[in-house]
Amino acid sequence: MADGRSILLVAQYSPPSFVVAARRVAGMTKYLARLGHRVTVLTSQFSGEGPIEGAEAVIRTPDLLASGLNWRQRRDRTAGGRAAVGRPPSRAESVLVPDISVVSWLPFALKATRELEADCVITTSPPQSAHLVGQRLSRRGIPWIAELRDGWRFDRPRRDWPLALQRRLDARLERSVIEGADAVIAVTKPIVEDLQRRFGRRVELITNGFDPDETGGNGGFLVDPERFSLVHTGSMGFTGGTSRHLVEALRVLRMESPEVAERLEVVFAGLLSTDEAALLERGDLAGIVRCVGSLDRGDVLRLQRSADALLVVTEGAKRPSVATGKLFEYLAAGPPILVLGAETEAARIVRETGRGTTTSADDPHVIAAALRALVEDGQPTVGSRELVEPYAWTRLAEVYGAVVDEVCRRTGESAAAT
Q1: Residues 15 and 51: beta-carbon distance below 8 Å
Q2: CA 241 to CA 123: how far, in whole Å?
């Protein structure tokens, strides 16, 4: 694309941070740049330092989250890939609407935009306060795309605000963003449908995705070739998910079908909260569960490709919009996927692509039956590779680029008309 746009991408979390939001920023930046767009990333120093592939410039502002105030990031890494949950939520977190970042990062981000120019600005949440940067730049005539990775007032990843005044303010902010942006993007179908129903406007679906350039090397990594290896990569306890029902299912399986349990291993790779570590490392799960700690990116991908099956744990009907970022890496990896949470967006995508099976998120006996079927039947047949190609960033970036072009064109036509 010879006439690519200059894009300002506002994202508090970015590479080299390991969080899912940073992986999305990496994919967007790299592949929008390959389409000829010039991408500047405005982000936080809390995400780390260094360049981002494809970015023409990276602006990393100060961020008070480095003091450990944020509920998503409130943890300390320890030896062996463990993580200790820190202090209880601060008073500021429970008071500040829409989120703690309105004071920890937003003032620095707004200051950084004073001299910036772009053809288009994309703001991505959470944190929702990132969209206030888009509102500011929109007033200067810069076309603005607001992207929601989680629901805002819908399917919230944390409990609602305790006070009616806070809820009203939060709802007012949500409305001002959704109605004020030139385009709105959401990453899962339930979020799209909710926004369209409540606000009566067009919302684009652009899911998370996988980078087709990433390869995981050869298989046979950290798994027992004599057993059926079910692998889970990434954090869980920090984002609301829990292995509690899976743990109960493994106990049921060991009690009812000990010979099947002996042929199964469940491997967890990634940071564990102290609560999750306590659940997974209990002595009665010895021989079935292995926790291998935090791995570097290449080893994570290699482990995924080494598995007999890959595991997605959700909260089921409590969070139907969830399609975790690791799901899209799993689609690229190849092994079949087991989703705990048949009602979720993750389950819908797995069924649609023919890449695995889904089951209950919270019934240990149903989960145990699904595990038994996997071990006894071996790897199920997966759908055609062509079915997962729409989730590659090469394709997703083309859709994103079309949205950027549309909002820039509409803004230019409106300016010409006045």
Answers
A1: no
A2: 26
Asked if 315 and 347 count as a contact pair (C-beta separation under 8 A), the reply is no
User: Using one digit for the tens of pLDDT, what is the confidence trace for 278-337?
Assistant: 888 887 888 899 999 999 999 999 999 999 999 999 998 889 998 988 999 999 999 999
Taking residue 374's Cβ as centre, other Cβ atoms within 10 Å add up to 21
Strand order in the sheet with 55-61: 55-61, 38-44, 6-10, 120-125, 144-148, 183-186, 204-205
Q: What is the spatial distance between Cα 9 and Cα 26, in angstroms, rounded to a whole number?
A: 11
For tokens 């809820």, what's the residue?
Answer: 167
CA-nearest of 328, 293, 42 to 208 is 328
| Nearest alpha carbon to residue 333 among 211, 234, 229 | 211
| In a shared domain, residues 92 and 164 | yes
| Strand, helix or coil for residue 70 | coil
Do strands 55-61 and 38-44 pair parallel, antiparallel, or not at all (unpaired)? Answer: parallel
Same domain, 200 and 243: no
In a domain, 193, yes or no: yes
